[in-house]
Amino acid sequence: MTGRSGGLEKARAKMLAAGVDPVAIDTFAHYYRLLEHGETGMIPESSIDPVDIESLADADVPADVAADAIGKTVAIKLNGGLGTSMGMDRAKSLLCVRRGLSFLDIMARQALHLRKEYDARLPLILMNSFRTSADTLHALGRYEDLAVDGLPIEFLQNKEPKLLASDLTPVSWPKEPDLEWCPPGHGDVYTALRGTGLLDQLIEHGFRYVFVSNSDNLGAVPDPKVAGWFAASGAPFAIEAVRRTASDRKGGHFARRKTDGRIVLRETAQTAKEDLEALADLTRHQFCSTNNLWFDLHAMKAKLDEREGILGLPLIRNNKTVDPADPDSPAVVQIETAMGAAIEVFDGARLIEVGRDRFIPVKTTNDLLVLRSDVYEIGADFGLTQVASEVPFVELDADHYKLVDDFDQRFPEGAPSLAKASSLSVDGDWTFGHGVQVVGSVELSGKGAQRVAAGEVLAGSEG
């Protein structure tokens, strides 16, 4: 056990030497001790009940309440991801979405439009990682009026050492030392806000509400109606939820804990194998998180002060290899938390059901194809509107389309029309010409390189 008990001190020393914020080190130590004592973060099905929630569609939010609330709101975008699962080595938000505009471009323009329309300050601040900061700041350099009131345009998420699964000591990987570190999950947003002093700064500047969302979700506009609902609710914390669909079966969901009645967010990594069937039951657990959340700055400050900077979110033990691209590299444990799990920390926290148009995440090139197609329209306000009657299910052959460079080569003239498609499944190596239309449910398969000719209409069943 000597290796285990010494592992925390070695990790502390490594974090101190790297200049990591002391509160982030204390937070890491809190979770390390849980891990050391065998905590897995599991939430058994027997300990929770399904949850029922109110809907934004039924909420009456007067225009003046909405306008007042958005005037007191700060938008924070989580922008630490590199898009490594799609073969990228820079911020995923730099990916082109439409008309030469990246995720970052569209987010910036959404914020600028809302400021003008509501005469609001509405700062847009990014939580970057040590790997995304430089590229992001360079890309945003063209928006000279984006920074507000002397507030920063970014703050950095913390980093922590990956731990060897064998003895929980910090892993050493000299050939690529960057891979010895990982982010502490997006639950770090609260620690980082406090540690950088930004939490106090926002309060001093007269802001009251924070809207946090992922930078790869262009549906997550800081909407005045949702801001007004949140302000009127008086809740300290709230999360936007959507009804789960078949594509959400393997993902997390909301539930209510039997012991104290609090809302909890159960992630897949917190679900035991014997409970996976219940996790996937869409009739039992009907709502999942959009990762769009709202909190009251004063309530967050009070709770963090009360807990000396450690919110105490549930632990997520993430088992990986030190080099994600090399399954034979040493097995490591990454200590993570989910920001949505803060819902169980606050008395009176709320959920609100929103439309699927507020949840358009891009996790794979399948999602990217839908986003680049004509399923959505980008309006003058740079918001996305779903113009197709349904969002088609897309499954592209991972051998040929998983990586962005390979994907782009096979759609050299842009995405096909998917507005009338219900699904598109591609098995094999197909390149699409200009103006291809997909109608109904279409499956393509074939050996060797294949081409769909320009202007071709692919009609399947239902087409």
Summarize the helices and strands and which ones pair or pack:
Elements: H1 2-17, H2 22-36, E1 48-49, E2 54-55, H3 63-70, E3 73-79, E4 96-98, E5 101-102, H4 103-118, E6 124-128, H5 133-139, E7 154-156, E8 160-161, E9 163-164, E10 181-182, H6 188-195, H7 198-204, E11 209-214, H8 224-233, E12 237-243, E13 253-257, E14 263-266, H9 276-279, E15 287-296, H10 297-306, E16 316-321, E17 331-336, E18 350-353, H11 365-372, E19 376-378, E20 384-386, E21 393-396, H12 398-401, H13 404-410, E22 417-432, E23 437-452, E24 457-459
Parallel strand pairs: 2-18, 3-6, 3-11, 6-7, 12-18, 21-22, 22-23, 23-24
Antiparallel strand pairs: 1-13, 4-5, 8-10, 9-17, 11-15, 12-15, 13-14, 16-17, 19-20
Number of strands: 24
How many independent structural domains?
2
Helical content class = 25-40%
Report on the biggest sheet: 8 strands, mixed
